[in-house]
Amino acid sequence: MPGSRSRLFGGLVLAVLLALGTTPAATAGTAVAAAGAVPPVGTAWGEPGPYEVEVDIEAVHTFYRPRTLGPSGERHPVVIWGNGTGAVPGIYSSLLRHWASHGFIVAAANTPTSNFALGMRAGIDLLERRDADPHSVYHGKVDLEHIGSAGHSQGGAAAVNAAIDSRVDTAVPIQPGPLTDPDLTDVPTFYLAGQRDLTVWPALVKALYRDSGHLPAVYGEVRGAGHLSSIGDGGNFRAPTTAWLRFWLMGDENARGFFFGPGCGYCEDDGLWSGWDRNDLAQLVPGPAGT
């Protein structure tokens, strides 16, 4: 595995083996952050996070970010975003703003043809330069050690394609198109399908998931969702994607038990999911301490 990916996955496993985890409900309602940490939100991943949001629309990217970066000395993890075919970031604005309210810097490529993920990966390059620039608002505020890729439809395929970059630590392909190959990457991946998606059938998403046996992968099929159900505020895709990103990029232990361990929270949520599965490597990720 590339170095940054190995460090991330190994570090999280080691953390729970050292009994640093808590049960998902242990700090529900908590809103006080330790110095240098993104504030916890309990398990309220579908609700707005603790940060006011700023949107910077530029020629090549649109950035969704906390208005005040690093108020307690924290650095903010990065999510690079890929649009669906013919779409622009504004179509997904409420979802991307939601992630920014939870402390992420979202670099959305302003392209309607995101499949090869070139613009997405360029967002990392740009944030690296700005983090190093003492005149930039991003200076010293970007957590470049924790980067996720996400996208919808064509951009969902691009989320997997972007993860070929060793700087990317996890991927969230939402109703991903077929022009990708999971063998290109080895990061933990959360595949999301819509039960009533007639554009990208759930069977197509599940085929990508089943081709991901070499990495920790989870498959979630959102009950009743069509292909456009994830646009706008993300609908029922919003909370689980936020929880996944907070776990892998922020080490949010409140989210661990919803994905991992015996009787995981989302495993048993039939109201949200019409289909749910975890592959063998995902089942090896430890659950909360004591489970």
UniProtKB/TrEMBL annotation:
Q: Which InterPro entries match?
A: AB_hydrolase_fold (IPR029058), PET_hydrolase/cutinase-like (IPR041127)
Record GO terms (molecular function): hydrolase activity
Q: Which residues form the signal peptide?
A: 1-28
Species, as recorded? Streptomyces omiyaensis
Instruction: Give one Pfam hit by family name.
Output: PETase
Superkingdom, taxonomy of origin: Bacteria
- This one is known as Alpha/beta hydrolase family protein
PET hydrolase/cutinase-like domain residues: 98-258
What keywords are assigned to this protein? Hydrolase, Signal
